[in-house]
Amino acid sequence: MTAIHVDLPSLASSIKDWGRELGFQQVGIAGLELGEHEKHLQRWLDAGYHGEMDYMAAHGSKRSHPEELVPGTLRVISLRMDYLPGDTEMAHRLAEPEKAYVSRYALGRDYHKLIRKRVQQLADRVQQAIGPFGFRAFVDSAPVLEKAIAEQAGLGWIGKNTLVLNRKAGSFFFLAELFVDLPLPVDAPHTTEHCGSCTACLDICPTAAFVGPYVLDARRCISYLTIELKTAIPVELRPLIGNRVFGCDDCQIVCPWNRFARPTEQGDFQPRHNLDNAGLAQLFLWDETTFLANTEGSPLRRAGYERWLRNLAVGLGNAPSTISVLEALNARREHPSELVREHVEWALAEHRKRQ
After folding, report:
1. What domain count does the chain have?
2. d(CA 252, CA 83)
3. Which CATH number do you get for residue 129?
4. How far is C-alpha 203 from the chain's CA centre?
5. Is 122 inside any structural domain?
6. Is residue 101, in this structure, part of any structural domain at all?
7. Do 210 and 173 share a structural domain?
8. pTM of the model
9. Long-range pairs, 45-54, Cβ under 8 A, ≥24
10. Are 142 and 60 contained in the same domain?
């Protein structure tokens, strides 16, 4: 049972201070009304833009009704944490076709554990201050409309690339939520958007995944194709993926607001195993034991070894026909996975076309 006679405005102010002490750059408090976002989600699902991500449609109205997901919820505390390592030369890596491009959020340790622990610590601080209360922490781990909640909590607006944008921090940050049964004062929602007439993110997308502003067809998105898709990557999209082997940052790299993105202060988000500067051929020759060792506690585990090889085979098919590239592909022609073999054969066929 939640403690009574709590000074709620003072508690809300303390929660924001404690959140910053725990490494979050911003903390906001949202109510539960997400009506317009619920309609947008339904239109997106009805159009089939979620592809194989059945979980996006699996929880009925719980995704847009926090009080249904966690009964008793009165407010959602929304938090954001910067993740961009110092200069990882994103544009340079994309311009080096023999190098593997890994989305910058995935270069270090998996963010889920680190951020969930910090959100739990925030809940513990609140409990120390007021006694037991009802709460539940989420980090990209349940049917939560986290971007809509962030907008409602005043953390930014949802941009044309469907990511939350912040005028002082761009978009290279993670979001987390703490559902609470406390009637805290809410922050003013971010009701203005500052994309203006800019279409840089829509224009740069390598696979033309944006149906229009604010609408992403995930089935064409490189992040979806390299991480979520469990089957073969559509042949017509493979040449467009270039050297992107896990996720894609193009629509963030070109966003003018990311001039204001700040390097993360979290050591766990720094690149590991030279993943910010590794060759496609070098990574393709990792055996499964090496993959598992080098991706322990890493977001790359989400793809798994087989799909990791599938993605690298596509990158190698798009790379120049060097000896190391061709040798790496030929070394995997007899791989036990049919999925891997098919993508290797496609890649070798691409090289034969150029001879």
Report:
1. 2
2. 13
3. 3.40.109
4. 20
5. yes
6. no
7. no
8. 0.94
9. 47/211, 47/217, 48/219, 49/211, 49/215, 49/216, 49/217, 49/218, 49/219, 50/218, 51/218, 51/219, 51/224, 51/228, 51/229, 52/228, 52/229, 52/230, 52/231, 53/218, 53/224, 53/228
10. yes
Same domain, 38 and 130: yes
Q: Establish whether 249 is a catalytic residue.
A: no
Pairing of strands 135-138, 173-180: antiparallel
> Do 60 and 208 fall into the same domain?
no
Q: End of a domain among 116, 145, 180? A: 180
Please provide residue 126's backbone torsions phi and psi, each rounded to the nearest 5 degrees: -65, -45
Q: Are residues 161 and 310 in the same domain?
A: no
| Sheet with strand 26-30: strands edge to edge | 26-30, 75-82, 173-180, 135-138
Tell me the C-alpha distance between 156 and 150, whole Å. Answer: 7
Structural domain containing residue 25 = 8-85+108-180
267: left (phi over 0), alpha (psi -120 to 50) or beta: alpha
Q: Which of 82, 124, 140, 276 is catalytic?
A: 140
Per-residue pLDDT of the chain (355 residues; tens, 9 = 90+): 444 578 999 999 999 999 999 999 999 999 999 878 888 888 998 999 999 998 888 877 888 899 999 999 999 999 999 999 987 789 999 999 999 999 999 999 999 999 999 999 999 999 999 999 999 999 987 889 999 999 999 999 999 999 999 999 999 999 999 999 999 999 999 999 899 999 999 999 999 999 999 999 999 999 999 999 999 999 999 999 999 999 999 999 999 999 999 999 899 999 999 999 999 999 999 999 999 999 999 999 999 999 999 999 999 999 999 999 999 999 999 999 999 999 999 999 999 999 8
How many CB atoms within 10 Å of residue 31?
Answer: 17
CA dist 285 and 324 (Å) reads 11
Collapsing DSSP to helix, strand or coil, 205 comes out as: coil
In a domain, 81, yes or no: yes
Residue 346's SS3 state is helix
